[in-house]
């Protein structure tokens, strides 16, 4: 079956190429120290815990001074605000599947006996269960395996969400 000669399909891809620079600036809460015109350059070092330090030598023969740098935090909302990485259709899907939409759907669901009641079905990825188990294990004396965490999450969902 052929397409009409009057209709042509062009540029069906709505992928936006990633921007060169992120639009979310790094917020600096401390003021920059005034520097001498002949001051030495700085370097960034990473210690064993993964913290970043700005190392600078204030003058000839002096000990290097280190200042801990803050970690930049970017959320999914920040990424969606810039011009890149995902298509516009994907951003609509992500917005439609947010936690607020799920909570609104659960609140709008009639009681169990009502004919319009819909049974909510939730799924949890194995990676999410493993991450939750690691978080629970790090904050308690008893290690938590993913199966135990799944039982706890399922009980919470039945009690709190319906």
From TrEMBL:
Keyword vocabulary terms for this entry: 4Fe-4S, Iron, Iron-sulfur, Metal-binding
The keyword Transmembrane helix is assigned to this record: no
Lineage: superkingdom: Eukaryota
UniProt keyword Metal-binding present: yes
SUPFAM superfamilies found in the cross-reference section: Fe-only hydrogenase (SSF53920)
Xref: InterPro entries: Cytosolic_Fe-S_CAF, Fe_hydrogenase
Any GO MF annotation of the entry: 4 iron, 4 sulfur cluster binding
Role of this protein: Component of the cytosolic Fe/S protein assembly machinery. Required for maturation of extramitochondrial Fe/S proteins. May play a role in the transfer of pre-assembled Fe/S clusters to target apoproteins.
Family statement: Belongs to the NARF family.
Protein name from the UniProt record: Cytosolic Fe-S cluster assembly factor NAR1
């Amino acid at each position: 079956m052929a397409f009409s000669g009057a209709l042509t399909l062009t540029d069906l891809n709505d992928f936006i190429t990633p921007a060169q620079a992120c639009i979310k600036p790094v917020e600096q809460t401390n003021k920059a120290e005034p520097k001498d015109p002949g001051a030495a350059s700085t370097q960034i070092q990473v210690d064993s815990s993964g913290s970043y330090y700005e190392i600078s030598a204030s003058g000839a023969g002096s000990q290097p001074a280190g200042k801990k740098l803050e970690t930049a935090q970017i959320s999914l909302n920040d990424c969606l605000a810039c011009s890149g990485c995902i298509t516009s259709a994907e951003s609509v899907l992500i917005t439609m599947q947010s936690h607020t939409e799920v909570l609104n759907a659960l609140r709008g669901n009639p009681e169990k006996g009502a004919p319009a009641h819909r049974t909510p079905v939730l799924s949890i990825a194995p990676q999410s269960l493993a991450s939750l188990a690691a978080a629970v294990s790090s904050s308690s004396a008893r290690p938590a395996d993913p199966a135990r965490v799944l039982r706890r999450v399922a009980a919470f969902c039945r009690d709190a969400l319906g």
